[in-house]
Amino acid sequence: MRLDLGLLEIFCHVYEQGSFSGAARKLRLSQPTISGHIKNLENHLGTTLFDRMPRKVVPTRSGQLLYRHGQSILNQKEAAIQELKQFMNKLDGALEICASSIPGEFLLPRLIVAFHKDYSGVRLQLKISDSEQVGFAVLKGEADLGFAGAKLDTVGLQYLNFAEDELVLVAANSGEWRRVRTITLEELRSKPFLAREKGSGTRSAFERKTGLSVDQFNVVARFGSTGSVKEALKAGLGVSVLSLRAVESDIQNGLLRRIQIRNVPPLKRDFYAVTNQRLTLSPIAEKFLEYVLRDARSSISEISQ
Fold this sequence. Notes:
There is one protein chain. The protein is of the alpha/beta class. It has 3 domains: about 5-85, Winged helix-like DNA-binding domain superfamily/Winged helix DNA-binding domain (Arc Repressor Mutant, subunit A), CATH 1.10.10.10; about 90-165 and about 270-305, 3-Layer(aba) Sandwich (D-Maltodextrin-Binding Protein, domain 2); about 165-270, D-Maltodextrin-Binding Protein, domain 2. The protein has 11 helices and 12 strands. Strands 3, 4, 5, 6, 7, 10, 11 and 12 form an 8-stranded mixed beta sheet that branches. Strands 1-2 form a two-stranded antiparallel sheet. Strand 8, helix 8 and strand 9 form a beta-alpha-beta unit. The protein starts with a helix and ends with a helix.
């Protein structure tokens, strides 16, 4: 039985998008063309790969089995192409990165610029999500690499430390908070608190370090990004715990105020590069990961000096 790689690639896109129309948009083909290719693949294999629903397609057991092997086959094909290009000093292609907000907005852009200068033929796409979704994206093969502030408790992912951070309590540098320097955890629990969504690395790190759930605080609003929390803080909505990397400039400019939590040690945490242990990294992904880890080693060396 021969398996056409082109049809296999179309099948994987349909599987990931959950619909023929979604795969058609992704591949810039018509929906009837996609449907026809999948039908041909099913006829060739002698099995149904998707159950057709009104607005989506659902993979059958045969479809799930083919996808598991199909992703590995396509990754191996891409790795072979990239290794040949690298051998000929022509590293080019696409690199899909998924990162949580702090690594994605404050750590990776500088590294992406440096990487692009050395490998201008590489097209990088960075998607910002929360730490939990980063892990799932890498696990499902939707991202070549992930960068997150918290680990997903699941088999198949490898986490490599590449940066450190500190969580700090901040509020608007105005009103009742202008003169506040310290606060206890018990006092903090009664104050209007701005929380990140479940799945956020910032939120899970704060809960892990304090032993308290965010739900035990007086949460007045929940936000899906660090940027939205900062804007709400500046408007005086309440207090929140955020990455020092994200609020450092706002503190220096007098827009936000850092408040110490009494009898609580510094809330340190790590950032991780995330890889899928079941899939072979492409040469592009390997090279970018090398960039990130080399930068991490350089930063540690500078601090120790």
